[in-house]
Design goal:
Layout: H1 10-63, E1 73-76, E2 81-89, E3 92-95, E4 100-103, E5 106-117, E6 120-131, H2 134-147
Antiparallel strand pairs: 1-2, 2-5, 3-4, 5-6
Length: 149
């Protein structure tokens, strides 16, 4: 009985396995690099979101103060962010066709967060127009001063 001739040689099987493993490892390395980039982008977005959330908290804290105390500065050591706020009168006018009235006790409050991301200085800011009746604020201060006596 005769044996059929072999069509493949054993050396080619080893070469095919080496080539397949090389292609697979290049694909895995490419995927790993993509995942690294995705995680870096996610961390960047998470930090920016944390800064914005802290800026919003800072703004709400400042809004509760009297106008005279609204210009302030604060630092978040965890995020390495500096917050600053400024306030200035906001001129506005209400008109009803024939007459107009100057609106008072309106203020433009600006809160700014300054930080560094990847060595590049960054700023985020929020502006809000607030109403704070100064006569009512003076009465509130007088009551608080009288209560402490």
């Amino acid at each position: 009985m005769t044996r059929p001739a072999q069509t493949s040689r054993p050396g080619f099987v080893l070469l095919e396995i080496v080539i397949a493993l090389t292609i697979f490892s290049v694909a895995v390395l490419g995927l790993a690099q993509c995942l690294k980039d995705v995680f870096a982008a996610a961390n960047k977005v998470n930090r920016a979101q944390a800064v914005r959330f802290s800026l919003r908290s800072f703004l709400e804290e400042v809004r509760r103060k009297p106008v005279s105390d609204m210009e302030t500065s604060s630092t978040d050591d965890r995020l390495k962010v500096t917050f600053n706020s400024t306030v200035k009168p906001f001129p506005a006018e209400y008109s009803t066709g024939t007459s107009s009235t100057q609106l008072t006790d309106l203020y433009l409050l600006t809160a700014v967060a300054s930080y560094t991301a990847n060595g590049v200085p960054q700023t985020e800011s929020v502006r809000v127009i607030i109403f704070q009746n100064q006569q009512e604020e003076q009465r509130r201060r007088q009551r608080a001063g009288g209560a402490g006596r």
